[in-house]
Automatic annotation (TrEMBL):
It holds the Pfam family Glyco_hydro_16. Residues 230-492 form the GH16 domain. One of its GO terms (molecular function) is hydrolase activity, hydrolyzing O-glycosyl compounds. GO terms for biological process: carbohydrate metabolic process. The keyword Kinase does not apply. Keywords: Hydrolase. PANTHER family: GLYCOSYL HYDROLASE-RELATED (PTHR10963), GRAM-NEGATIVE BACTERIA-BINDING PROTEIN 1-RELATED (PTHR10963:SF60). It comes from Sphingomonas ursincola. It comes from the Bacteria. Belongs to the glycosyl hydrolase 16 family. The keyword Hydrolase applies. This is Glycosyl hydrolase family protein.
Amino acid sequence: MPPVALTVSMWRRAGIHRLPLGSKSPLAFHAVKHYACRGNYRLILSWVPPLDFIGHVMLKFMLLSAPACAAGIAVFNVMLWQPSPLAPRPATDNEAAAPITAEPALFGPEAFAGGSRYPSPVKVNLGNTQISAGEREARISVSISGPTANTVVAYVRCTWGDGAGPIRDQTKSVIFRPGDPLARSVACAIRPAKSGTSVRFVQSNVPDGAERGIAEASAIVVARAPQEGATRTGFRQPFRFQPFGELVYAADGAALQVNDVGGPQTWSTSLFHGRVQPSNGETGFYGEWALGGFQRRQGELVMTTRRLEKPVSRGFDGKPYPFLSVALSAHKMPEAQFRYGSVEWVVRMPNRRHSWPALWLLPEQGWPPEIDVYEGFGYNSDWNFSSHLSTNLHGGKSGQRTFTRLMMRMEMGDFGLRNTLDTEFHSFQARVEPGWITIFVDGIETVRYANPFQGTKWYPLMTVAVKAPPNSAYDDGSGAMEIRSVRIWRQE
């Protein structure tokens, strides 16, 4: 977006003033004049951006002549700009993604026992098929053992079997969404094969959101196989993100209000229970603002972790913590809380080994439950910050977790998205409805869960924990999560 210079006149009487930006976006300002004619204004920006705008607002104040001052008029030059775009989403996926539609519940309330139970994970099974000699494509059946309460992502590798194999050994992601048919096929290009040979397929990893059942199958080459096409009928496309509720909070990184306690319109640098989490094996102290974990930079709020010059022992356990972790929590921020609604973060992720970035939702009181929209498990040696995705639900009561439904092997490419989580800004969205919790990346549905936590009041958090050995230098790559914007919608 090119810079657009506007002139706005503000009167002595406080109020909301609107003007069009181009042909669409309204700007609303609330100006309060103090110390008449001394040019001291308190200006509260209340701009509601369009859904496709992520940028910054710059205000330049100029006081007019004495007569104008006496009349209570000042001029503000307003500049809007979009410094760098989000990572583009592939046109194929954007075109294929579908608007969100109402879907019937697949499980009754008794399946969730008030948020302490979740339907058992289904099993993913592979089934043998036959293909004709000379064919250039091998396919097998992939099925799940029953209706699923959550998205399932299976990982099926096509590899060399008995005398026949693929042109390229590869692993494909096979996605089942709640309500999809229970069986589909997966195929790979092969070299022409003779009768009596076979191409091997194997579940190369435990599926996300399910268990591994029959893990191997073959496409068996025969002289003439029955005609069987790929199974695709009845499988829906991923949903496109649509906010649920009315916009109640919007701020870019420059406008996020933060202090160590939190409150109305203000994020807290502490978690609701304190500044350490030893039960998770964390070795970082969630620092106050004065410890230097937060910086404003080019319209973004940068949350930075590091090794501390001297360990901190201010946690409730009294132990020394050698690393600085960072948190922004809305547990004291009523504007950010909702039972049903949506939240969106636009961020660039860290990539430092042993960092643990997360975007998540917690209940107003107690734990569990918990909704993990994104987690980056940097303490796992095989975690790839540029491409790996993870979501989870934690259920239970009275401090006792009784179930989780972890998805942690997914990759951006499984959904047609670019592997640039640590080099470009991406949007992460969660939509919480009475029946469903749906997670999106760059507006494309990645995971959907049947909602077991109906009526729970949530607040959002953004954190970068540290889970490094105490003697670690913790200095490779970037230990910072960069926040470009946060938006929250509330339906109830």
